[in-house]
Automatic annotation (TrEMBL):
Gene3D superfamilies: Protein of unknown function (DUF541), domain 1, Protein of unknown function (DUF541), domain 2. This is Uncharacterized protein YggE. InterPro entries: SIMPL/DUF541. It comes from Antiquaquibacter oligotrophicus. Pfam families: SIMPL.
Amino acid sequence: MADTIITVQGEHSAWYPAERATVSASVHAWGDTREDVFQRATTATESLRALVEPLHNTTSGPITWWSSDSVRVWTERPWNNEGAQLDPVFHAAVDFSVKFSDFGALAEWVEAAASIPDTAIGGIQWDLTEATRTSVTTEVRSRAVKDAVSKAAIFAQSIGLGSVKAIALADPGMLGDPAGVAGGMPAPMLRGAMKASADFGGAPALALKPEEIAVSAVVDARFVAS
């Protein structure tokens, strides 16, 4: 009797609390005078750096890493609604990325940074540490394989066979099944939310509420059932 081949796809997802948050901030000044615009951008940039460096230059500071661009300066000639070109508008901009391990310190920093003239706060990317990511990815992939074994065993039992033996394990699409090619091994999905809450004992305070990070894995598996 020919062997019965069973091919299945195992998957598993798990959720973990965020451990790191990288906030994007930008300085953007514009106006009619190049010198004034450059000076405003430089002043705002130095103010932002003054908020970053004391929190980073310590052994256990809440900022684990940060970077910033050099000042970029450009000019544009806008047009009005009558088709006439207006006087030049000068721009100067600098982008910052700052990674925090302490979300309370992050909230305080965002409030302080947002109060600097010509400064805007962009999105926040939530993440795990490299060590945690490595550990949980291994666990999730292992559970995806166990899910594939469980599915194959159920299929075998449903047709009166007793046991299954794995003969191939692969990332989706690598067992020659075209339907699985688009699946891939999903990277960890990072999701987070930033919301403001009010402290009724004083001024409104910003509270950051990260969502848990979903880590998912998918595996294709082929078994022989007997």
